[in-house]
Amino acid sequence: MIAGSLRLRLLVAGAVSILIALGVAAFGLSILFERHVERRMAADLTLVLDRLLAGLERDADGKLTVADPPDDPRFERPLSGLYWQILREPHDLIDRSRSLWDSDLPLPEDELSEGALHQHRIAGPGGTTLLAVERRVVLPARLGGGPVRLVVARDLADLSVATSDFTSELLPYMGLVALLLGIASAVQVRVGLAPLAAVRNRLAAIRSGRAERLGTSFPDEVQPLAAEVDALLASRDRQIETARARAADLAHGLKTPLQVLAGDIERLTRQGETAIAADLAAVGESMRRHVERELARARRTATAGTASAAVAEVAGRVVKVVGRTPAGDALDWEVDVDPGLKARIAPDDLAEILGNLLDNAARHARERVVVRAAVEGDAVVVRVIDDGPGIPPELVAQALRRGGRIDTTPGTGLGLAIASDIADAWDGALRLGPTDPGAMTAAVHLPRGR
Fold it and tell me: Where is the HAMP domain (predicted)?
């Protein structure tokens, strides 16, 4: 399903990218928060360290002590997680907070420069991990001189709790951001794929005859595709014109020889050479079928055009021609078509269809032939109705088959088949059937024109 939908693939890719980006962002923000809180903890511990250093005094016995210890009550509560310790180098304990109880803070064996501040992570009481800040100072003579190390430490569990709370509060906001980014991604995909939808609509318009080319109103990324499609359409139009011209040349080139052949057949028949005349008639009919087939093939390539035929005008013109024939002169003709009605078909092709249908109607009608047309749904339906005997339903398929004959009147048996081929070439259809008792209808369904 994903492989068949570009929109779905883009949405899935966008969703995965958003989730990865937000996951990385949440992890990064948690790390930044943890480091920020750790720096604040270290800064607070440094203030305590400075106060310890400022509070160093000697008691009456000359022992170094902290005259003014930090007033945070956690320093007085055993194993509270907040500790301080003073050592005279190398490892002589001078004093420590009550919170350490009977434990010591293990310091790393590193070289400390005088007055420099060092920060460590060390092991604390009860298996805890502490953030420790220490400083090495050399005491003045009034305090006994010599170097001492002052250390203040805090349990890092507080840092973990703060980071966990921050992450928990961050997740809902990350969900909201994910939702907003998802909506933005969907809008972006919709806007990005809009030109492809425009191409599809333009192609549908070309297929339906409402347009000839895609045009140039596309983004730079889509325009090369539109240009190639337009070039392909132009090439196809040239091929169509070539095919139609070849078919017309073929029909014109064979018209005169066929007329001469028809005259020879008639003369031979009058002279009693009926066998030779029949053979020549068969050859002439075969040649005529080839001509009609080529013309039909040329028409079948014309479906992509934007032609439009005025049905009333074409029907009136064909009726005038057929009405002057010996068969049509004795009939009443009626054309009941809205003058503004148009069908998407070349006028010559519509005339060819109606010519075949009206010729058949003239040969089989008793008194009257009616041509009607109306819009039915998305189609224009042109009906030729005569009061002849009609075609039995079981013979309709045979009548529409090329060369199919259901009577013995003169003809090639190609008229209805050619009319059906032309209608089909323009996305239409020819249907035969009775309407009322004693009437026959040939209905041509064609797309609506502009």
Answer: 190-241
